[in-house]
Design brief:
By secondary structure, the protein is α/β, with parallel strands linked by helices. The protein is built from three helices and seven strands.
Length: 157
């Protein structure tokens, strides 16, 4: 069974989502199905079909979260030492062509959120950065083409 690296914050977020699905969403959809059944003919009951579809989504997500949480390995980035890019650090990089600066926090695949600057350890950028030091230049193959990035700083969160 493959371990899934995760920060404590990411683990808490997934655990909260699972708890909400089990204690709030699941009972609500069961109640919605029961109410829809009371309206009679189920073959033409849109409310019933929508509630069943929602129930299917909830059950699938519960199974997925239980699997991920059971396999997760919570890693505290503060306990990691060194001057290289590793899991859990925030790395500031500059595009060598445009001088545009961007900060990325390297997290597990279930925590990735590019809008917040969180990138997965399996992303092309993270794979190129891991193991490098401040001042190093890395070549990254992205869907938009190849980029050269210079590492400006590394911060443990």
């Amino acid at each position: 069974m493959e371990k899934v690296p995760m920060t404590a914050e990411g683990h808490a977020r997934l655990t909260d989502e699972l708890k909400n699905l089990k204690s709030v969403e699941r009972p609500a959809v069961i109640k919605a199905i029961a109410e829809a059944r009371e309206h009679g003919d189920l073959s033409e009951n849109a409310e019933y079909h929508a509630a069943r579809e929602r129930q299917s989504f909830i059950e699938g997500r519960v199974a997925e979260l239980e699997d991920v949480i059971s396999r997760c390995e919570v890693i505290d980035p503060k306990k990691l030492k060194g001057e290289t890019v590793t899991f859990g650090v925030t790395v500031e990089v500059a595009d060598e062509e445009t001088d545009e600066e961007t900060a990325y926090t390297i997290v597990g695949p279930y925590e990735a959120d590019i809008a917040r600057g969180f990138i997965s350890t399996s992303s092309p950028i993270a794979r190129a950065l891991i193991g490098k030091r401040v001042g190093d230049s890395v070549e990254v193959s992205t869907p938009k083409g190849s980029k050269s990035l210079e590492i400006l700083s590394i911060a443990i969160q």
